[in-house]
Amino acid sequence: MTDQLLEMNDVLIEADIDGHWKPIVNHLSMTLKRGEIIGLIGESGAGKSTFGLCALGYTKPGCRIASGSIKLDGVELVGQPESALRKIRGNKVAYVAQSAAASFNPAHTLLEQFSEAPVQHGKMKTSEAAVRGRELYRQLDLPEPDTIGERYPHQVSGGQLQRAMTAMALGSNPDIIIFDEPTTALDVTTQIEVLSAIKEAVKARNVAGIYITHDLAVVAQMADRIMVLRYGDLIEEGNAREMLANPREDYTRRLLAVRNLREHKIHGDGINVLLEVKEVTARYPGTKIDVLQDISVKVEKGKTVAVVGESGSGKSTLARVITGLLPPSAGQVIFKGESLPASLKEKSKENLRSIQMIYQMADVAMNPRQRIREIIGRPLEFYLGKTGDENEARVHELLKQIEIPDHYIDRFPAQLSGGEKQRICIARALAAEPELIICDEVTSALDQLVAEGILDLLQNLQNELNISYLFITHDLATVKAIADDIVVMYQGGIVEQGPKQQILDPPYEDYTELLLSSVPEMDPDWMDGLVERRRRGEAPTAETLRQR
Amino acid sequence: MKVLAFVRSLNWSARIGLGIIVFFGFCAAFAPWLAPYGESEIVGDVWEPIGGEFLFGTDIIGRDLLSRLIFGARNTIVLALLTTACSFTLGALMGFLAATMGGWVDQVLSRIVDIIISVPTLICALIVVSAVGTSFFVLATVIGIIYAMPVYRIARAVAMDVEVMDYVEAARLRGEGLWWIMKREILPNTMTPLAAEFGLRYCFVFLLISGLSFLGLGLQPPLADWGAMVRSNSEGIAWGYLHPLIPAACIALLTIGINLLVDSLVHKASGLRDDH
Q: What is the pTM of this model?
């Protein structure tokens, strides 16, 4: 059994919840060989990060390893003093966090931060560390590897930062690297660059990895073995290929099924244009760059238009122009045949009522100090003049419509789960009885199964109430599931627009193809194949598009 | 019941702080019944010893020190409370206005505050008070305005953090007015830091009033207040009497009490917790 690098046996981790120790990782075991990558997958609260991090002998504050053993290279970690563990961390086991931007110190250059761990652990001198840093930057496909280390974290992009962080983890030649959702915060097109760079570097060095993610398609590309976790329990474990081809458990099957599209949609009644954005150009005050250039979009009554693009494409700015938060510098927004006033202050209550918005982060879209009653009741009172019992009755009706139990009416937002919060936001928008709802990335902060539920709800509401949606998203799976028309945006302009079938079926526009091809598929060979095709120039890459 | 639950939620140091505050508050409220002698009544010889016939002895003109301390709690604590309330209403309102409206409103208000804040507090108070008089009401207003400036800064800063939240944007998009946004969206979410700040400001106000009294510009004799009692009895130190230290100790004790309570409130406000 000497080839087992890491052996975790019957690990029980408990968290302090209101003064009681409750298990959050329930007697899990894991073994890891040199050069092997294991994927930990599950929804939020599954215990996957907690379990993954305990390979460092680390638990988050308020948690403890209650029992079990964690052996790294034959050495027991449980019960070791903090000082001994510190020697292991960053040295034998390294960690790559989800948000590289939050994990780098903004006041030091990349290379300074790279050198810190190996120099401090006494493994190399500063000059040696610099050489090694450049070497790793090159291997991870970072641009200008010889000088990029002199930049500060804010001077490189998110995807580059994530790779610099991986370089940092590789810096002191660790035996194991723990990746905690390293690409979740990235665009799809960037994600694939980072994934393939990480995979190559890790394989080349025969480093073992623990890859934590909620995205089964991503883990399919990276892992040799997969463990599916839920509520701290192991659901299923096995060889990645076998599991993807033949999931044994129902829960795994549901995770796999999420990405599949649904096609049971009642279509709107045709040519009835509700909202028209006409040749709009906009820039933020005090800047000189047009973040929207000559944009024209039409939304028909009872239909869903999806606006797709990466971060920085201007899709959220489009929403701000329609709502009036950002008056356009040219062009106009026409709603039901009438031109809308450009700025928020000039809009009538009726204008405001008929266009509602749902936000990405339900957490911050609701006042934490207001109860559900007030959050949903306020638009009823404000727009429709409903007070007292009438108001209360309508709130109950809306709660029923969004499938939230009646007694939640007295709760605060903090007492709800992520999906429930988003449902309340939907109810708040519905309360105004709008004709158009702008959905700004409404599912991207949610777990897949929960997001599925939200999309279903939105779909049902549309069929029932004939509302139009302007759906802003970067997630093409969402688009496939719910859009009638698609608008593809890139760097403030529209690349192409039209009915879903036309956009999503070949022949593709280059950028659309790049977006589509970058969405991870469940096939474990998908990424390697795509990277190969891109290398041969058969598929477009972000690089070639940028150069145009 | 709510009071009991509140006390139970505090840690020990906060409970001690609360106890001190409640004790002084009690003295202030029931001064005429608690004090053995009148506020300005001369009851014996000067500098009667501590712990003799009079618990805390007598002062420089033979008044009972304990009685004056109890009456002094009234003037000092009530005046400080009134002043702090005044400064918070003004400061928070201005701060919220600046944060919500932004633009030139923010600029104008902030520069005015910068100017006032750049003059040392005590000097500013001295100038104004010596010009307009030292009545109870004038003192409260003047110190209230001076201390509204730091409150403005904090209120503006915390309100700006809240102002960028999506729920405030949602309220704007709904078409809500300025007052509603300030009252219903911003105020409830800035309450905890502001409440903590209230406790701290209260101490500062208290010390400033004591300081002004010490310089002879606070409440005028024969009204008792703790700062003035330290001043008028300070000569005693030269003769080896410890009497002036007693009101000074009261000032220190109340300040410590308030700080103990406030510290725990700040701690509670900064930690992660569920609000229900």
A: 0.77
